[in-house]
Amino acid sequence: MSFRASWSLVLRKGGLGIRGIHSPGSTAHSKEKMSPYTNYHAQRSYPMPDEPFCAELNAEQQALKEKEKGSWTQLSHAEKVALYRLQFHQSFAEMNRRSNEWKTVMGCVFFFFGFTVFPKKPITLTDEWKAQQLQRILDMKGNPVQGLASRWDYERKEWKK
């Protein structure tokens, strides 16, 4: 029996099921929160998310939350930072920090640009073609008042100075 056939048999008999595969620990439509991080979403344009970054607290974090209810002058700097990290994932400075992703993107662009094979240059861009085209314009005396023909000396066969 092939892998695909055995897998479909497991799914038909109600083994894991699609929801059991895609969601860790609960069904896809359950209202339960995944621990310890929930539907946290903070952006520079919306810095105050609806839920705290860390929803389920361990004993040490709960003790810190209780200490938070007292005087803030008794809290150390490290405890204040820990309380901030329970509520928010990043500070504004961390959110606004530039990433180096542009270097990767430009590196990939130049890498693939380097391996691109260009077709041969069209014949109209060769120097011979351009010289013949210029001679044809001069022979036809095209635009003799202000154009190329006005700057060409037809008697000496050279450009006017």
TrEMBL record:
Component of the cytochrome c oxidase (complex IV, CIV), a multisubunit enzyme composed of 14 subunits. It is a single-pass membrane protein. It is found in: Mitochondrion inner membrane. Pathway: Energy metabolism; oxidative phosphorylation. Component of the cytochrome c oxidase, the last enzyme in the mitochondrial electron transport chain which drives oxidative phosphorylation. Keywords: Membrane, Mitochondrion, Mitochondrion inner membrane, Transmembrane, Transmembrane helix. It holds the Pfam family COX4. GO terms for biological process: mitochondrial electron transport, cytochrome c to oxygen. This is Cytochrome c oxidase subunit 4. The keyword Cell cycle does not apply. Its main location: mitochondrion. SUPFAM superfamilies: Mitochondrial cytochrome c oxidase subunit IV. GO terms for cellular component: mitochondrial inner membrane; respiratory chain complex IV. Belongs to the cytochrome c oxidase IV family. The gene is LOC102504739.
